[in-house]
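Obj: model holo form, ligand = uridine-5'-diphosphate.
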Amino acid sequence: MATERTFSIIKPDATRRNLTGAVTKMLEDGGLRVVASKRIHMTREQAEGFYGVHRERPFFNDLCTFMTSGPVVVQVLEGENAVARNREIMGATNPENADEGTIRKVHAESIEANSVHGSDSLENAKIEIDYFFKPEEIVG
Ligand code: UDP
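Output (holo structure tokens):
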């Protein structure tokens, strides 16, 4: 087992419903440690850059509008196999397909407003962490 870092976002649907603590508790209870965290309001430019890989997808514009519709909490999570572990705790993209007890099953409103983002690979985790955090903002 390897200690990894992954990148998480608590999305606007969750911050709007005051679920920052509830979502973070599920991450912590799942074995992950928050080693960096900040509440920001993403600009359109930031959202479009972050989701650049989805630029050609039909949901891209709506997704960027949603992600800039309110505050988000960006976090760096640390733990054993943190990338895969976080994806397990989050559940499937579409909450209808998410396992019982996952963040998206419990809290998500829709396939778009699905409460959390989590990196899908260690490589992307590094890129996403660097996109939002300076090294000195991460305290392990
Ligand atoms: N999304 C959407 N409609 C879709 C698929 C995805 O609005 O049909 C949004 C959703 O918020 C999702 C994000 O786009 O979390 C990124 O999609 P991805 O397929 O990377 O899913 P994730 O890795 O977040 O589970």
